[in-house]
Amino acid sequence: HNIANDRYQLCFLLFCLFLASVSSVRKLNNIDDLKNTRYGSSSPHHGLQLLFWFAQRVDVDQNNNMYLNFNPIRGDYGFHRFGNHERILPLLRSRESYHTFGNLFLQRANELPNYVHENRNNMLESNMDRLIVCMSQNRPGRILSVFITAHNSGRNDFNPSVTYEITPALILQLRHPFKCNSDQNNVYIILSDTAEKTEEDRCRQFLNQLGYKRNDSTNTRRQKKRSPDSQYNTYEGIKLEIKANKKGCSKLIWEIPDDIIKQYKYVYIDICQNIYSTNTNEICTDVKKEVKITKSSDALDTSVSLNAGLQPRLRLYTSYFSKADIWYGPEFDGANRVIPIRIKGFDASLQLYTEDGKASARLYIKKTFSDWKKIFSHSWVGFYKSSQEKNDAYSTYQYADKFTKIKDFSTEDYDIYHYKSNLVIAPGVQLRFLLDKKYDKVLAQTIWLCVLFFFIFRWTEQANKIE
Predict the structure, then answer these.
(1) pLDDT tens-digit series, residues 172-225
(2) Fold match between 217-333 and 341-447?
(3) For this UniProt entry, which residues form the secretion signal (predicted)?
(4) pTM for this structure?
(5) Is 237 exposed, middle or buried (CB count within 10 Å of its CB: 0-12, 13-18, 19+)?
(6) What is the pLDDT of residues 260-272, one digit of tens each?
(7) CATH number of 217-333
(8) How far, in Å, CA of 35 to CA of 359, rounded?
(9) CA angle, 278 as apex, 275 and 284 as ends, to 5°?
(10) CA angle at 323 for the pair 320 and 329, rounded to the nearest 5°
(11) Where are the domains of the chain?
(12) How far is CA 65 from CA 28, 40, 62, 141, 167, in A?
C-alpha cells in the first residue's frame, strides 16, 4: 500500500512539474512590467517595435477580448504557424493554433513599416525577437492570447526565460498616444490622449520610456559617429528609396548628407535585385543598374522594371583602391506594403502587386473554400487606371477561375493564385473584384498608392542569420 501511495505521489509530482514547465509564462500587465524585463531593450533588437506596431492593430472590447484588423492565418506581415515543439507556451486546446511573426528576412515581412525594420542588418541580434498569438478557428479575428519571446543566441530554439504573455491591459496602454514630457531624469514619458504624433513618433517615445539603448547612428541626427567596427563610420540622415514611376519602372530617390559627399571620392548607388527574399549578401550578384552620385539629393527615373526584392545599395570609396563602405535602403515590397483585401462574404482575398512593372493580382483562397471555382465561375478581376473609372471602363480583366496557382507561395491555410496583366503599374492603378458579369457587385477593391518609406540600415561583415 505504501509503495503504491509513493508511486501515486511521485506521478502526481511529475505531472505538476510537467504542467509548470509548459504553462508558467509570466504575465505583463503594464508598461512598468515590460520595462523591468529588459526585453529587447537595445539596438539592434526589434521586439519592442514589433509589440508596439502590433498593439496599434488590436481592438480590445469591454470584456478584454482582443480582435485583430488583419489576418495572421493568411500570412499577413510574415505571420506563420508556430508549433510550440519546445513547449515554451501553454498547450493548445481543440481548434486553436499559434502563429508567430518577426522574422524580418521573410518576404511578407516587407509589409511592416520602416520603424520595425530600421535596425535590421545581418547581425544575429537584429532578427531574434518574435511575437506569437493564439487564435481560435471557431472565431476568426479574435486573439486568445499574445506572447513575446526571442531565439536563443546562435540557435533556432526559443528562450523560455524571455518569454512573456502580454495582457489586454498592456495592449491598451500601448495603444494610447505618447506625449513627449520627460521627468527630471529624462526617464519616463507620460501618456496623453493627444493623437498629433505619427505612429512612428509615438513608437520612438515608447522606446524612450522603456530606456531603449540605440547605437550612435540611431541616437544622432545627421552627425558622424564611430561605429563599434572601427573601419566604418555610421551616419544618420542617409535616405534611399525605390518606388514606382508612371511607366512601371523604378524611380531611385536619395538624400545623402553633404559631409559624406565631400568625404568620399567615389559615391555610387546600385539598384540590386534580391534573388531570394531572405538575406541580402554584401556583394549582390544581380545589379540591375549602377548610378554614379554627384548630387547630395535627387530623384532618377530608371529603366529597371519594378519587381519585389529590388533594393538600393550605397557604396562609398575614399580612394580608387579603398574598400567600400556599404549601406542598404529598404527592400521594395511587390505589393507596396498593402496586405490582401477580403472579398466580402467569402473566405478569399484580393491583392494588387507588380511583376516586371505590370499590374498583377493575387487571389488568396482559404483551403476550406473548396468549391470556390464553382461559386466564382462568373466572377472576374478588373484592372483600372484609376479609381475614378466606372466599373465597365476597365483596361483589362481576367476571370477568377482562370488565375494560375502559385505552387511555392501557399500557406498552411490558404492557396494563392495569380494573374499578370499588361497594364503598367503606376500610382492610382486599381483592382476590383466583381461577383458576376454585371457591373454592380464589387466585393473588393484595392489601389496602388504612392507610399514613401525612407530608412537606411547598415550591413556589417558578420553573416549570421536565424530561420
Answers:
(1) 999 875 544 333 333 333 333 333 358 888 999 999 999 999 864 443 333 333
(2) yes
(3) 1-24
(4) 0.81
(5) middle
(6) 889 999 999 999 9
(7) 2.60.40
(8) 45
(9) 45
(10) 110
(11) 18-209, 217-333, 341-447
(12) 16, 26, 7, 11, 10
